[in-house]
Design goal:
Layout: E1 7-12, H1 19-27, E2 32-33, H2 40-45, H3 50-55, H4 59-68, H5 79-83, H6 92-107, E3 111-115, H7 123-129, E4 134-139, H8 142-151, H9 162-184, E5 188-192, H10 193-198, H11 200-211, H12 226-229, H13 252-255, H14 258-267, H15 269-274, H16 283-288, H17 297-312, H18 318-322, H19 326-332
Parallel strand pairs: 1-3, 1-4, 2-3, 4-5
Helix pairs in contact: 8-9, 9-14
Length: 339
């Protein structure tokens, strides 16, 4: 398969931070294409379960996995066309590249802007496997992120505690400072969601300049590409059908309890210190940082219990790892911290 992609760009950040919005914006550029989330990297490449890893050496097993996959069919690419170029012993990275090349060829575009929140967790590996690639790290107020995540339809049947969502936000955010300057230099580009929706043209122009592509007016009409980014079942991406929502921030001020705000701010206290020029603590949160606040007692108890469990637990088996979320498999492999 010929190489169509001349430049690789990866969008990452916490869920509900605007990664899909950035995808739709770049889909409006004459040189760029941004495929819908296929989850190939976390499912087959960097956080694959043992069964998916083993299938790479068995063409029949791999084809069966690809055909039954929940997300890959969004790309509308016949697995047979990919497997023609994927041989026994090839890496999972090649599998991803083949899918992306096929997609870019069909769209007749040379800049692949692949977007998924998980890309921020993969910064270290993306640097190794895609030489010269760019990282677009979109950052949003964690209080709005947590609130939006808990409201999203994909969490309606899942008991996902506020504390866990805030902790994952904090850990994902730190991937940028941990690996951005070290591996990417000027190719690590941080974008603030609030700037994107309130100053869209200026923010997009700045991104284009950093990526060495021209700004195009069509990028402001991102809603015209919403169908290319959001699958029918992804109802939580409905805002992609609307123009920039310039007031879609600081919703936590009126829609979140003081107790929840304090807990998020405490869990993400390092974020607020590092990003103090962009985000400030609430008055109650500032008080909580100076002493043992009543709303933080459950967090301290949970932290102690977590430490005890870690001391008594051994190394997880492959079967146990397969049942963990992708970010936990990455953490276990030591991929989330600098060497």
């Amino acid at each position: 398969m010929k190489e169509t992609i001349k430049q690789w760009v990866f969008i990452g950040g916490a869920p509900r931070s605007g990664t899909s919005l950035l995808q739709a914006i770049f889909n409006q550029h004459s040189l760029c294409t941004s495929p819908p989330e296929s989850h190939i990297k976390e499912t087959y490449v960097y956080a694959a379960t043992s069964t998916k890893k083993n299938s790479l050496g068995n063409a029949e097993a791999l084809k069966e996995f690809l055909l039954k996959d929940k997300w890959i069919p969004r790309l509308n690419i016949n697995p047979d066309n990919i497997l023609l170029h994927f041989k026994e012993g090839d890496s999972a990275v090649k599998l991803f590249k083949l899918y992306m090349e096929a997609y870019a060829q069909r769209e007749e575009k040379s800049v692949l802007v692949e977007g998924a929140p998980f890309n921020i967790w993969f910064m270290k590996k993306l640097h190794e496997d895609f030489q010269g690639c760019y990282i677009l790290h979109i950052v949003r107020d964690p209080r709005d992120v947590v609130m939006s995540t808990l409201k999203a339809n994909y969490n309606s049947n899942i008991d996902f505690p506020l504390d866990n969502v805030a902790s994952q936000f904090m850990e994902s955010y730190l991937q940028g400072p941990n690996f951005g300057k070290r591996f990417y230099g000027d190719r690590y580009i941080k974008i603030y969601y609030e700037d994107l929706i309130t100053k869209p043209e200026q923010t997009i122009r700045n991104m284009c300049e950093r990526l060495h592509i021209s700004f195009e007016e069509s990028m402001l009409s991102f809603q015209e590409s919403s169908a290319k980014v959001a699958a029918v079942e992804e109802g939580w991406k409905e805002n992609l059908n609307k123009p920039f929502l310039k007031d879609n921030f600081n919703k936590w001020l009126t829609e979140m309890s003081v107790s929840d705000v304090v807990r998020i701010e405490y869990i993400c206290r390092v974020f607020f210190e590092m990003e103090k020029e962009h985000y400030t603590l609430s008055s109650e949160g500032k008080k909580a940082m100076t002493g043992l606040h009543k709303d933080l007692i459950p967090l301290h108890i949970k932290s102690i219990k977590r430490g005890v469990r870690k001391l008594i637990s051994g190394s997880p088996s492959a079967e146990m790892l397969d049942k963990l979320p992708a970010h936990d498999r990455l953490r276990n492999a030591g991929m989330l911290k600098p060497d």
